Amino acid sequence: MTARAHPLLTSERIGLIGDVEGDVAMLTICLDRLRNRGCEAVVQLGDLGLVWPDENMDATLDELDARLEREGQVLYFVDGNHDDHAQLGVMPVAEDGVRWIRPRFGHLPRGWRGLHSTGLTFGALGGASSIDRSDRLEGVDWWPEENITEEQVASLGREPLDVLFAHDAPLGVRTITSLLDDGIWQWNRADLEYAAYSRGWFHLAFMNTQPKFTFGAHYGLFAEQSIVTVTSRATFETFAIVLAHAREDKKCCAVFDTVTLEVRVFEP
Fold it and tell me: Do the beta carbons of residue 47 and residue 167 sit within 8 Å?
């Protein structure tokens, strides 16, 4: 896969998938539907849950890679907060900047950048903080490396992006603000403050790079909104898409057309 420009940087249509959390059956359904819509390259937006403390992980990934080979697809993912960052961190990154876990299955590290054949600039910044950290165990289903850091924001840089692939979302998406302020889930104050920390770093990266599109997941719901941001540098507009969890909502998949810049969200 590294011998040529990989499909994420050449495909006209790029598929997008929300949180999966280890549900291989739902992931396969989403991949099939995206293949039928002409998507060779697919980006899963964090909480894939396949790089995980599981004795069957290698067999699962081998089966996934064989399926991707048969169907002519390549699956990329950004890490979320429900991925095993300890395992990811020791896997090598190839010369093209992608952490190829299998020949057709790759991780986009935080700070990754790529230039699409259309001239669009892509970036990736995975990670987010678990708002339910209190209910999780370190090294079992929670890792402190889930948090975005100042160094990772610096790695992404300040050059403008057209597309930012992420797990989190910028501030200002009303649906997410309402969810966090509602209190329906009865999160405790310490976890809310913890979750806000990483999101603050993500928003700084958003402000630095001024992307025209952000694609994320993380919140278990679907949201879309155009955000107009005014800074001392410039005024810029971003179309933010947050895809829902694949098991819980129908709006968990989308197709991004790199030529028309149209985003179509659909049911899996």
Answer: yes
